[in-house]
Amino acid sequence: MFQTILNTIIAVGGVFGTIFMLFYAYWYLYTIVSIIKKPKKAPAASKQNEYGYIICARNEEPVIADLVKSILAQNYPADKMHVFVMADNCTDNTAEAAREAGATVYERFNKEKVGKGYAMQELFEHLKTNEDAAKCKGYFVFDADNILHPDYTGAMNDTIENGARIATGLRNTKNWGSNWLSACNGIYFLRDSLQMNRSRSIIGTSSIVTGTGWYVEKSIIDAEGGWNYTLMCEDAQFSISQILKGEKIVFCEDAEFYDEQVTTRKQSVKQRSRWIKGSTDIANKYGKQIFKYMFSKKITLRKLLTGIDCICFFFGPGYVTTAGSITCLISMIALMLTLAPSPAMWFIPLSFVFSLYMNFFFSATLPVLFNLKKIYLPTGKKIQAILLFPLFMISYMFLSVRVILLRQKVTWEPIVHKESFDMSRLKQNADIPNKKAV
Fold it and tell me: Residue 243, Cβ neighbours under 10 Å: how many?
């Protein structure tokens, strides 16, 4: 009887394990597509549009001026760029630093409606009466710790003039050399851009906005009466909402910008827990609508692929990872009990951990090998980041269980940024402090 129960558990675990592997197999399919083919480049635009740059900042005095200056230093007409900053519940001199750098600054103090979504909502309300905003074709959205490649706006303008109403750029990292956590985060986002969004662009499906470095046409915001996305991951909520309305988010690979990654374990846990909770909230709110989008009205291959991608993207970090983790653990224990007391029983957990490690090892190796020039690290640190990346990803399994199964409370908290960067420092790894991840 006991053996029958164990066999049943093992069989069920095998089924769920197969589903789990198939769920993430699309990452590898996208990787192959991104390697064998590059997306078509938008032709050079004959018109240079006027744009607004949206920045919501909470106590970002050390870095906000770097971003504003990198925007205004673009290889693009200065009179066609307008920077709008919302200093959100700041207790430092973020507003003053942004003004001195050349931005138009608004301030808000609201302890109840906390988060970037609410800050954007209020900023867009202000822009309804702003004369410079009225002249803009659309808006770019950035986090305060970003800096832009000098050709970012020009490349985006080409894409926009080629018909894009929503677009996202290539998210690279500005502090690769801070420590192993920043390097692993850098690989994660580079993989997201150069494997996932590049492949989506090639096969003709919609990309997904993740946090920063993206564009939305003003007419879309105006048609919705402002900004209406206030979930924990407001960027992803905006993405799925627009996809369900028939919009396509275009990936512009030549529009490169640089993001500061977290450097401490505490920050990393808080940040990734927020992403898991945010994606789960979106899955709960829009899950049924995604299935309706795929199969309602005229069914097309592009709609089916986009829908499958969205299901994997929003259900994967929380529900699928938690279910897969628990199922694998139970099945592994059942297999060990079947082999007990033979020493071979210990082969089960070792083989599981090894296969999991190698899976994430290869998922890091490929984007690094094919994008060496975009990773500003010496060879030794590149190798170190690849070797540690699987541990970074495996920790997601524990975080998913904490957030989904154990119902850990997750709240929006700002990430502290203290390092000042510009393009000249970006590639000089020698002067970037190698911090210990604490």
Answer: 25
